[in-house]
Amino acid sequence: MTGTVPLARRITGHRLFWPAVVLAGLLLLNLALTDGFFSVEIKDGHLYGSLVDIARFGAPLILVALGMTLVIATGGIDLSVGSVVAISGALACLSISGLEDQNSVTGVLTAVGLALGLALVLGAWNGMLVAVAGIQPIVATLILMVAGRGLAQLITDGQIITINSAPYKLIGGGYWLTLPFGVLIAALLLALTAFLTRRLALGLLIEAVGGNAEAGRLSGVNARGLLITVYAFCALCAGIAGLMISSNVSSADGNNAGLWIELDAILAVVIGGTALTGGRFSLGGTILGALIIQTLTTTIYTIGVPPETTLLFKALVVTVVCLLQSPAFRARAFHRRRRPAATPAPADEKVEVRA
Amino acid sequence: MAQPAPIVRMRGIGKQFPGVVALDGVDFRLLPGEVHALMGENGAGKSTLIKVLTGVYGIDAGSIELEGRPVAFSGPLEAQRAGISTVYQEVNLCTNLSVAENVFIGREPRRLGRIRWREMRRRAAALMARLEIDVDVTAPLSSYSLAVQQMVAIARAVDVDAKVLILDEPTSSLDAGEVAQLFRIMRRLKGEGIAILFVSHFLDQVYEIADRMTVLRNGRLVGEYRTAELPQVELVAKMIGRELADLERLEERPPAREGAPLLEARELGRAGAIEPFTLTIRRGEVVGLAGLLGSGRTEAARLLFGADRAGTGTLTVDGRQVALRTPRAAVRHKIAFCSENRRAEGLIPGLTVRENLILALQAARGWTRPLSRRRQEELVGRYVAALNIRPADPDQLIENLSGGNQQKVMLARWLILQPRLLILDEPTRGIDVGAKAEIQRLVAELSDDGMAVLFISAELEEVLRLSHRVGVLRDRRLVAALDNDDELTTEALMETIASGGRA
Transmembrane stretches, by residue range (chain A) (predicted)? Predict the structure, then answer.
């Protein structure tokens, strides 16, 4: 039966079709407004171009959104990632600023290790609150969202720590094999996540816990360990993103680093077609979602939207994406004209909660 | 007797889902003032036909008439306004709201946009009194048993000005007294000229209440019959489309097992759930648990699986004392538990048949040791074939399967683990005759191969047919453990349940 479905409908029916269309549309809009928007050239042995910039500046968001995807798939949410971004950047910069030689590779690696270690601990703390204490995820992570900002400011002593370290600069601002180092890290983490969830069985167990927690428990899934792992992984991703952001500007700002990134990350996950209710998740969708958000930010600059209306403009585009992602909306907007008697198949009904 | 004009007439109904033809050219009519049974196996299209009639699904072919006028409802609410009320198989109420709120949800008595709570409570209480349901309408629905919740759902359905009342498996969770009460209500409503469409797998109930019946098989119409003119055996043959010879009951009672004890529970109990009980299950033995709804059958089983933590007593497996604090610990001892509440405690929606099927095995292995895709496909293929799961498509979403086939997937999820003790809580509830016989045969085979089975069922015949020994529960207490010898009959069992101990 599936063989008889026309190819065109299989493509338009794919759940990532509409996000892909929006991304392509945004890119084409940029191409129309900016000459050579798609051109990528090599200067000084580095890749240069607007597309490369989108990937480079989007890398932290992609990382945070990756971790967020897994958390949301378990039926939870992590509001604390923005604070973890700030904490990890702050701790790394503090520890580097204390070095006698800020260009010492060992010193920088220690700083990175410390920062990521703390991120893991904070993530595990979130996971314990959710899995062991049974606190609702939105409340459990709200604690760290608020307290974490304070912790970051404590670490930086309320100041902006500025450093001058070449090895650290590599993480967010450097290049390797002509490619931005941050993009490579994001690609590596994506590959790692895909491996853990799809080649190993982490994905199935996460989807089981998120789809029906009680059924998962009765099937012998160790939900407690799973949740702690997932929240810790999410915080680790946020920690790496924090290193990237602070490395890119060679400074740590406990107040503003990663501010509101949790909301962009949640948005990216939702645009990518993972339901906030948990269950089925899509890593590819999340990447698309993060790229849409980053492209949107770039577009706002290139088409010269006045700063006071950028947020409104962003909201407008996001609304359009979410509407396009909703099967119910599509059925109303498109199908009515073509086939008045058409009704959604039951399989479609189940995904209506998405977006 | 001249037949009145049908109130509902459906002609040539066709409905397809991706990969499945659910209904194909089905005709159906419903007369006012009759109880009409819709019969067929799981997956025959009963639920789909009802959902098509009430506008949950659109139709791909055919026509629907209500009182002679063609209709096409856009949803259950519109159907309800036109006088077609439905009570579905699984209770669709908000258990966190009060009984009164549930009865009037969406149509609360209002004045100036404000809900008139007092009026609502008064009317709800009057309605409950009329239907002889003894509840406090201000109490949250969750404080009542599933059976009472079902009655409330029916009360809600009949309170709207219904011309047609559809009851999809209303009795599957009711005990005998409650069924009698429901039938009394149904007869009263029938006397008022309401047409009642009734779906049930209990043939005795159908023969007690229904005037006529329509039989479906594999989405097609087999025929429409007067109940009085169609003997039960012929009905069963029509439903499953097989010869009667295939339907022979499982032969003699199984001989008693003498194997070593596999699991022994001593004074195992949990406050508020089940009084301390002592029970031994031997290798290859089928132990039945009989008792009324709410007598503690499920609660006892959950303790043996670690789904709930026991407050008192000890549990030994293979003579060694174990503490089953979680289902995970039980699985490690090769104990499996198939819950009676498929939707809440079994199925993972959004995942495929394959993923649902391998879940327990994968969970036992942990996420670092995945089953290879090929091994998955081999296992799933084997169990889909062995249990005759339809449609035989491992990548179909689980929610697209009928109830009976979902149940088989749940069974397969545990059989893959090759457990030593399989706990089955109402595995045949809401399942058609064919699938029921398949599952019963399977239990007998598994036990012959040395697997111990704890078999919980409300149907005493079934318990007696399969079990070597029967534990009887009453009021959350294990009152007797009886050998299934020639003296043990359904009457004797009922006597024990009623009196609380064998005389």
Answer: 16-34, 54-72, 79-99, 105-125, 137-155, 175-196, 226-245, 257-276, 283-305, 311-329
Q: Which of B332, B342, B367, B396 to mutate to test the interface with A (most CBs of A within 10 A)?
A: B367
**DSSP structural state of residue B115:** E
CATH code for the domain in which residue B121 is found: 3.40.50.300
Which among B371, B388, B418 is the end of a domain? B418
Residue A202 to chain B, least CA–CA distance (Å): 5
- pLDDT reported for residue B91: 66
* Cα separation, A233 vs B154, whole angstroms: 48
**What ipTM was assigned to the predicted interfaces of this complex?**
0.83
A277 inside 8 A of chain B by CB: no
Q: Find all residues with CB under 8 Å of A83, minimum gap 6, and list them.
A: A144, A145, A146, A147, A148, A149, A151, A152, A258
Cβ–Cβ below 8 Å for B345 and A199:
no
- Structural domain including B363 reads 348-418
Q: Residue A117: what pLDDT?
A: 97
Q: Cβ contact (<8 Å) for B367 and A342? A: no
Round to whole Å and give the CA distance between A138 and A19.
26
**Which of B16, B20, B73, B328 is best to mutate for the A interface (most A CBs within 10 A)?**
B328
Minimal CA separation from A150 to chain B, in Å:
36
Summarize the confidence of residues B378-407 as an average pLDDT: 89
Q: Determine what percent of chain B is predicted with pLDDT higher than 90.
A: 38
Do B32 and B83 share a domain, yes or no? Answer: yes
Cβ-proximal residues to B317 (8 Å cutoff; 6+ apart), any chain? B262, B263, B333, B335
Would you place residue B245 in the very low, low, confident or very high pLDDT band (cuts 50, 70, 90)?
A: very low
Asked if residue B233 and residue B167 are part of one domain, the reply reads: yes
A337 vs A5, A158, A161, A326, A330, CA distance in Å?
21, 59, 60, 18, 11
| B449 shares its domain with B485 | yes
Percent of chain B with pLDDT over 70: 93
Domain boundary among B374, B394, B418: B418
Question: In this structure, is residue B307 part of a structural domain?
Answer: yes
B19, closest residue in chain A (CA to CA) = A1
* Contact call for B327 and A216, based on CB within 8 A: no
> Which residues are paired to B212 by β-bridges?
B36, B226
DSSP B221: E
Is there a contact between A39 and A31 (Cβ–Cβ < 8 Å)? no
| Segment A119-147 mean pLDDT | 96
Residues 95-134 of A with CB under 8 A from B: none
| Structural domains of chain A in order of their starting residue, each with its CATH number | 43-327 (1.10.3470)
Q: Is the pLDDT score of A31 beyond 70?
A: yes
Are B142 and B201 part of one and the same domain?
A: yes
Q: B426 and B414 in one domain?
A: no
